[in-house]
Amino acid sequence: MAEPDARDGFADYFAAYNAEFDRARAGIPLPALEQLLGWLRELRRAGGQLLVLGNGGSAASASHWACDFGKGVNVAGRPRFRVLAPADQGPWLTALSNDVSYADALAEQLRNWLRPGDVVVALSVSGDSENLVRAFALARAGGARLCAVVGGAGGRLRDLADLPIVIPSRDYGVVEDLHMTINHALTQFLRREGERLPA
User: Fold this and answer.
1) Is the pLDDT of residue 1 over 60?
2) How far is CA 102 from CA 10, 49, 110, 115, 176, in A?
3) pLDDT tens digits for 80-134?
4) Taking a C-beta distance cutoff of 8 angstroms, is the pair 116, 146 a contact?
5) Where are the domains of the chain?
6) 38, 151, 187, 199: which has the fewest Cβ within 10 Å?
7) How far is CA 3 from the centre of its chain?
8) What order do you get walking across the sheet with 82-84 strand by strand?
């Protein structure tokens, strides 16, 4: 399907955007989402950390994931997630970007936090951001599980991830929208699952 074209007028553009969203959503591999859900259940039981990475709009989405996994899934009497979004560490991120390199700024933060068995999720449209690639390399060496939620062809992150979840669209808005759809589906399901399980 062709990407929406602004020359068609807003009503047509909006319809085409929604059609692309629906097409891409339908193409998300459900078995991969279910595998990530299984990882998250295991991680919470084990007291491991969820580290969510991204740049730009995907960094904002990573922060939203951290908020929802940190608060939105909580059920009284159930274990809570240990979750962090390194892009939220503004002074630290800019110090590393200035004094080391932006390409290493996320990996350098992971050196402080990462433990074997942690889960690292990278949100990206291209899958080729160098700082995410380097963070994945460090996380793999540190014994973490790696999930890339990426758009288009998936880029280098697709090949580096233990669990690639490829959103079949190159429209950055659609991919970022679906980053949030996946987050909300996972977190709301985990909360409702926790509410149903016997104490």
Assistant:
1) no
2) 37, 23, 14, 23, 22
3) 999 999 999 999 999 999 999 999 999 999 999 999 999 999 999 999 999 999 9
4) no
5) 29-196
6) 199
7) 24
8) 82-84, 49-53, 119-124, 145-151, 163-167
Nearest to 190 by CA among 14, 70, 10, 17: 70
Q: What is the mean pLDDT of residues 65-92?
A: 96
- The per-residue b/e assignment along 14-32, b for 16 or more CB within 10 angstroms, e otherwise, is eebbeebbeebbeebeeeb
Report the CATH number of the 29-196 domain: 3.40.50.10490
* CA atoms of 101 and 111, how far apart (whole Å): 15
User: What is the distance between the alpha carbons of residues 122 and 146, in angstroms, rounded to a whole number?
Assistant: 8
Determine the pLDDT at residue 197: 76
pLDDT at residue 162, as a whole number = 98
Q: Does residue 145 contact residue 129 with C-beta atoms inside 8 Å?
A: no
Environment class of 1 (CB within 10 Å of its CB; exposed 0-12, middle 13-18, buried 19+): exposed
Q: Kindly state the tokens that stand for 28.
A: 């998300």
Nearest Cα residue to 86 out of 76, 77, 95: 95
